[in-house]
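Next comes this protein.

***
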Amino acid sequence: MRVLQLGPYPPPHGGVQTNLVAIRSFLRSRGVPCAVINVTRHRRPNADEVYYPQGPAQLLQLLVRLRYDVIHQHFGGMLTNRILALSLACTSRPGAKSVMTFHSGGYPSTPEGQSLRPNSFGGFVLRRFDGLIAVNQEIMTFFQKMRVSPHRTRLISPYSFLTEQAPGALPEPLAAFFAAHNPVLISAGQLEPEYDLPLQIEAMPHIRKRFPDAGLVMLGSGSLKDELRARIQQHPCGEHILLPGDVSHAAAMEAIFHARILLRTTLYDGDAISVREALQLGTPVIATDNAMRPAGVRLIPKQDLHALLRAIEQQLAQPEHPKELSRGDDSNLQAVFDFYQELLAGKEQLRPGCLG
């Protein structure tokens, strides 16, 4: 078996990237070759079977040139014409089984998702895949709405939990910031409008009245980087808010481990991997209620500063318990591997494009 994955390859780090890398590591540890084609604007030199095409033409050339048995596309966000065109190319490669993981947890609830019909171009392209992986039940229901054969779909969590390891030292500037602040609140994700990051900044003066040494770390990068940096510089609590940009996944995990609370305030969100990782690390989570948070998360309404402040204060009022890293679990990765094997064994014989 040879596998080719298409999707965002880190850096930057995010939920889709983490799942892609975890699948690759799982396969290679079992002697299964696994190459990656990065499909984002981030460019690096090609290395270790990770390819960075300069545009659509180079990407299509790689799809034709590289030899593989399974092509696995990872998709997050909106189901745009660009994504559908890439999907059509992936499902048209002779001799390879095509798989897509639909990571966009909230897409079925958007106006675009609700308006999509089985007889649309999007519905047609989705049915061309030999296998579709949903990350939650809402997406599975969406596949049913698109009349995808149930035999072609799997519900598999994208979360690849950490292996057991002792916490390490924080890199700079995180180490200095944590040394100067206690408690530290942290968010981990992209600096984009849907994550409602100004709400966290707005909360800091209120939090520091109760907890004078409190600080906020906002990990990640994105389109709001410059705007947020300017806002923080002008903010009365600006010196107590750190915007370190992208850090390695290991550094992000160290920071979350050492933080007192992970904040996940969102306007639109799926089942975020940072939430799962924080819970595994033993760090409490306060998150906007999107009807798909895991057990153990303290939920708040969307865009509600008072609810956010109340939840933070209640959490900080509780005794801090020693953290223990929970045991690693790769059952989801095994499920993906098993799905590949089923497809290659020919257990699903339906023609691409059929309604099931």
